[in-house]
Amino acid sequence: MFVDERTKRVLLLMSPATYRAGAFVKAAQQLGLEAVIGLDLPQTLAELWHVPLGLDFADITTSLQTIVEQAREEAFAAILSVDDSATELAAYANLALGLANNSPQASEAARDKLLMRQLMSAGGAPCPIFRSFWLHEDPEWIAGQVSYPCVLKPRRLSGSRGVIRADNPVEFLAAFERLKRLLLSDGASEHDTSILVEDFIPGFEVALEGLLTDGQLKVLTLFDKPDPLDGPFFEETIYVTPSRLPEVVQQSIAECVSTAAAALGLRTGPIHAELRVNEQGPWMLEMAGRSIGGLCSTILEFGSGMCLEELILRHAIGEEVATLEREEQAAGVMMIPIPGAGILKGVHGIEEALAVPLITGVEITAKLNNQLVPLPEGASYLGFIFARGATPVEVEAAIRQSHQRLRFEIRRSIPLLNTGGIR
Fold it and tell me: pTM to 2 decimals?
């Protein structure tokens, strides 16, 4: 179905802190679509800040009713969640309005790490051995039930937030208490909240960006993550594409992701998958029913200069996309890690970092005089470095050189949460 003039409106659901708003709104404008922004805000704040459509993403019933009422006034061609925050709401809304959608159950599975593991395991996707435990259970007893090394994970926090590796019972106890404090500080109930503990999988980590159409996966690109991600925390840094892995390995990764998507019930739209690869083959870590986060999509172009967001919007409104092939040039991005807690007082060396050959951009997203919170409690980066070049090796080297020229002036402060002995 191609969208006619009467229905050229798209609803973009997003959290106020998302990096993705500008790219999706710009892509919508380029396609001649009217972008309606649905922000995760209480109605009182939405009115105070003059936000046209404020929604409480946690209250799906009320938010769904609001969206349906909006659609009665003027139809939507598609409803998309820009980040993780509203994938379930988007699924319910698309279903209610008869638009292409993933089922609410599939969208929930792509948000809940325990449900994801259960379905992937049952569906034949290779994944770590896992167990779940309640926050109110005795951590010393739990420490004796798991294998080492292991990884503790919150079920619903995004990215690597709250993810901690433990190599022995002593480290497990510290990690458990740290994760428990984080979850309780976020409003979780000790008696109603469980966490995931799974075996640590060694290997080389990759990220796959894909697009599903009627359950069929099209790989848009495969990123290598050249920095080792072995813990105790799992802060991602550099992504480089195209992958340097052998073609046969890349094909096995695509097959693994396709199996995992089917196991979760995902059938349409963008997916972002994280995997480990070792001598036994690829292992599924996580899969999200949305595109790559942050500003990382900036480095991706398809066909004759089409950005990822435009491709996703075209697909969502039912328009045929002539080509899904990524440009041949190598590209990379670095999510600049936060080295420690404190107040950001200054950023130096941006011009020098930009002067490195192959660097196409340096964007500092952290705000001066604001508190910096590193992983595992934090959920953001200092900024991003972008590069393009002839080969992945050259792109990676340019990004590392550019990063070395940046200097961040951070006034150290007392951490927001007790580190519990893990540093």
Answer: 0.92
